[in-house]
Design a protein that fits this description.
alpha+beta, two-stranded parallel ribbon, about 15% strand, globular
C-alpha cells in the first residue's frame, strides 16, 4: 500500500508544487522539515507564511512573509 509519505516524496521529487496548510499546532513545520531533507540542492524553495518558522539550510531558498492589507 502507498502511504502518504511516499506520495508526498514522489510529488516533491517530480518537482510538483506542494502546498501545506493547516491550523495552529497541526504539524505543518514538522512535515515541511521532513520534505526539505529529500530535496536536491539545485531545487529552488519558496517558503511563504505569516510567521516564517522554517529555517532551511538548502542554498536556493526565498522566504516571503505575509502581512495584513493596507486598508
Amino acid at each position: 500500500a502507498i502511504v502518504a509519505a511516499d506520495v508526498i516524496r514522489s510529488s516533491v521529487l517530480a518537482r510538483e508544487n506542494v502546498l501545506v496548510i493547516g491550523g495552529n499546532h497541526t504539524g505543518k513545520s514538522t512535515l515541511l522539515n521532513a520534505i526539505l531533507i529529500d530535496l536536491p540542492e539545485v531545487q529552488f524553495i519558496a517558503i511563504i507564511g505569516y510567521h516564517v518558522e522554517l529555517s532551511c539550510s538548502k542554498p536556493r531558498v526565498a522566504y516571503f512573509q505575509t502581512r495584513p492589507a493596507n486598508v
